[in-house]
Amino acid sequence: MGLAYGAALNEGRALFPGDTEFGQWLRSANLAEGMHDHERAAAMWAAANPDQFAEARKDFRGGHAGGQVAFRWPDS
After folding, report:
1. I want to staple 21 with a disulfide (CB 3.0 to 4.6 A). Which of 16, 56, 68, 75 is the partner?
2. 70 near 29, Cβ under 8 Å?
3. Regarding predicted confidence, which is higher, 13 or 31?
4. pTM of this structure
5. Domain for residue 6, yes or no?
6. pLDDT tens, 27-76?
């Protein structure tokens, strides 16, 4: 799915700014099946912020930590 899905959602959101109307559009366009709200929001954010998304992917995949995941849970 990814960026193309997010871009389509962003276009739909621009056409239907109300949550109810946007939800109806999602269902009528068959874009709601099998996706949770947080997954749709992430796809929309990624499509709207491709540079930040690419950087986040690089960080997550270990691009800044010599091939290891850069994120570490803080000590409690």
Report:
1. 16
2. no
3. 13
4. 0.70
5. yes
6. 999 888 888 888 999 999 999 998 888 888 776 655 555 555 454 555 54
Which pLDDT score is estimated for 32? Answer: 84
Tell me phi and psi for residue 52, to 5 degrees. -65, -35
Token pair 């800044």 is found at 64
Instruction: Round to whole Å and give the CA distance between 46 and 72.
Output: 23
Question: Which pLDDT belongs to residue 61?
Answer: 59
Percentages (nearest 5) of helix, strand, coil residues in the chain: 60, 0, 40
Per the structure, the complete domain to which residue 16 belongs is given by: 2-60
Angle at 75 between CA 70 and CA 76, to 5 degrees: 145
CA distance 63 to 69: 8
Give the span between the Cα atoms of 28 and 60, in whole angstroms.
34
Task: Please answer whether residues 32 and 26 qualify as being in contact, where contact means their C-beta atoms are separated by less than 8 angstroms.
Answer: yes
Report which residue type is found at 48. Answer: A
